[in-house]
Amino acid sequence: MSAPDYCEDTSALDPASAEAGVCASFAFTGETNAGLDVFFLIFSATMVFFMQAGFAMLCAGSVRQKNVKNIMLKNILDACGGALGFWSVGYAFAYGGSDADKKGFIGNTGFFLGNFTSGGDLVSWFFQFAFAATAATIVAGTVAERCKFEAYLCYSLMLTGFVYPVVVYSIWSSSGFLTAFNNDPPFGCGMHDFAGSGVVHMTGGITALIAAKILGPRIGRFYDADGNELPEPHDFPPHSVALQVLGTFILWVGWYGFNPGSTLVIASSTAGDVAALCCVTTTIAAAAGSVSAMFTDMMLYRRKTGETMYDITMCMNGALSGLVGITAGCSIVAPWASFVIGIVAGWTYIFWSNLLVKLKIDDAVDAIPVHFGNGIWGCIAVGLFAEPERMAKAYSTSPIAEGGKAGWFYMWGAGSGDGSLLAAQICGVLWIIGWVSVIMIPYFHLLNILGLFRVDSLEEEVGLDISHHKGAAYDLSGPTEEVKEAYELSTSQRKLVVPKDDDEPAAEETA
Hints:
511 residues; two-stranded antiparallel ribbon; Ammonium transporter fold; 2 domains; mainly alpha
């Protein structure tokens, strides 16, 4: 309900009148709703930021024991570098100068958060920073165990400060050339990426793919010491499955800030409906992806060897794949569609994981199949499964709320699924791949030429914890031999021989 017309100018009203009371109640309600929306974003952004702990645990469990410190430090600095880069220039490039009547390539206002004073503006930066840090963390796991620390700092700042913000501006800013929020969106609908299957996960995933290809595999992964190709790729077992599972669950929980939080507001029944749908579709897709990947892998393994084995790595990464796959369309697809998206996400993960091995691209944590492969699938799935009614509700404040294009599978319904949305999604996928590749391929090659990219082979063999971080992450040395001998001597001196009767042998008793 909107405020009465007489509330537009309350200066002429008697403060004690009923009309003044009505206007005061409407003002109070508006302030309360604004505060509630700010709190909702604070809570959601905090959950997204907590995903950094999930990435840290997952990566730490996936690498070998000798590199735990290195990958944990990189995860901490992802948050630090992301905050500084996004505060100084990243947010300005991503959202500065947004205007639904214009189109551009990059933002140009709001550097160092100049003139940001309202709670809405400030919490918007906080929310978007958490997303930027997530994109950077994806790369760290892929190049773990062999990437120089200097190179990590360079690519992390480049990604969060420039490459990622340009992708954000093109798809999420109202002035972007692919956005659905412009008054003249491409294809009449623009690209729909509600929470970032393409913007966040594809951007991080394609960066990781480029980095892994240029960096090369870990020593002993595909080739022996003489450079000869191994008959079968050598797998490096994770040093802690428990940490992997813990990280997976933390990421799953954090996704409830990632997807529902992208509603951006909550103080209305419509926003509540959208956020609740996001929770449901996110859960179903994650569960379906996990089951799909694990049981498909089990059947393939049984067909190959005749044995039935259940791989927990497939179970975990399948769940993460389902989460990435549903992120773009979590607010605009039906629960049954999220189940299908999750099933296909599990298969997509297996396909990309096997493809990387065939191409001899070494991904230490399988982040490329999860984030890049399923980032693509998530964007395409929107073009297939987006429902007209749910789109109108999710994008109620957008110019395309009425008359927007639906998914291709709905072309036989209201007639709005004519393939325009699918075309927009494909263009968005190609744009992200092209933009990131044009910038990051020469950037990583430059780091490699300057000798800043890969650690020395001896440093890699001994482990980055010892060669770069003052010692191993775990103290497994145990007591010295001298201490053990001293303990045994002390124990033997406390034993006494107690004489028995002549017909019984002497026995030792402890004093």
